[in-house]
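Project channel, design review

CF: Before we commit to the Halobiforma nitratireducens JCM 10879 constructs, I'd like one complete example in the thread so the newer folks can see what an input/output pair looks like. Taking Polysaccharide deacetylase.
RD: sounds good, go ahead.
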Amino acid sequence: MKRRTYLTTTTATAVGLAFAGCMSDEADEDDPGDVDGEDDDYEDEEDDTEETETEQEEEEDEDDEATSDIFGTFDDFENLEPWMAFQDIGSVEADSDQYYEGSQCARLEPDEEEGQVRIRRSLDEPIDVRDAVPGLAVASDERGMVRIQLQDEDGDYVEYSQQVMNDVSLTRVNFGLTRIRGDPDLSEIHVLQIIRWFGDDASGRMWVDDFHFVPNTDTGKVMLQFHGGYESHYTEAMPILREYDLPATTFVPTDRLRADVAVQGDRLTYDQVGELADAGWTIGSQSAQGVHLGRVSSNEMESNVTNPIDWLEEEGYEDGARFFAYPGSEYTQESYDLVEENYDLAFAGQAESQGYAANPYLCSLVADPDPDEAVNLLEWTAQNGGITSLAFYELEDEGSIAAVEEAAARLDQLVEQGDLEVITPQEMADEYVYTD
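CF: and here is what came back for Polysaccharide deacetylase:
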């Protein structure tokens, strides 16, 4: 039985986009979206002397309705005529051997000299994406980063990214906002572009389907996570978060926990897990052994993924038994299928500021940020909205501990200012999952 929680979609309020540059990806000097020029900011003009409150409310309702129309599948790639390889960089062809929606998908292959593929669709009518985040169903025979750009008529754009694994069937991926170029007018997006770098050898193929949009959040949301069940999460992280009264989640490899402190090792003891739970932490699963699931044999996969549920429920952590973190953010088809069947929410990825989860089994995170990166990610999310999960592993040096300290201090300030909200996996599963 699949245990899933869905949200009846509500319209998110608009979130401003002001940062320029790249948060987590290198600059692309040859990017066709890098077009110089100026663009007027979008602003709603108000005339307080003539417009009544009722009229304002009616206009707001109309704006909300217009934006919400975009949510769900936007392009199912049944017709590839609108799509073209930009400047012949790579190729795009129909492929009916697999698909997520309809009867075919688009197969993308890189240009041998460029080592990449770029396909774009120019829209007949511009779309308003101020409250929306794009996504794709993706499959690939090479692991790598996929990017989506939404460009205005001047070529300014917002870019969303996500890492995809190889040899997994077409499935929706949650993209996060990682770059803003120029001053894009999000109420008038004219071009959709999909980009994938394959490297110097230019080997590999990628399949895409179901270009969709999900709502963005009205206020930025942040989740604090600790992966691996390390004792340092108890000795170092818990006192820091307790000082600021911040909730967190620990994803533990249940078979590697220690009976007590007399047992040698660097993992949490059973009593320490209990104290974390008493302090308001969610106790979730990172598989029984906590090793990358690509290294687990097929005959051990099911027990590795599902046995922690029984342990968590027996120990009184029923709420956390709903949630899973893929070790190292890596997954295989077999492990993904098991997680989908047995959990409500799971985390893997490499992007900040994702929108509502179109796929709750591949929620995004940012792993082991350093102190400056952690603070920048929080400020980025406060400015641009979306959901950012900061995932910390073993806190074994001053830098990793400082990252938690500085993240907690800045997060406390931004929460106090009303610019961010801290959420738990349960709140994400119950409130921020989108279904068409």
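RD: helpful, thanks. The first strand starts at residue 21 and ends at 22.
CF: The chain has two domains: 21-39+68-214, 220-431.
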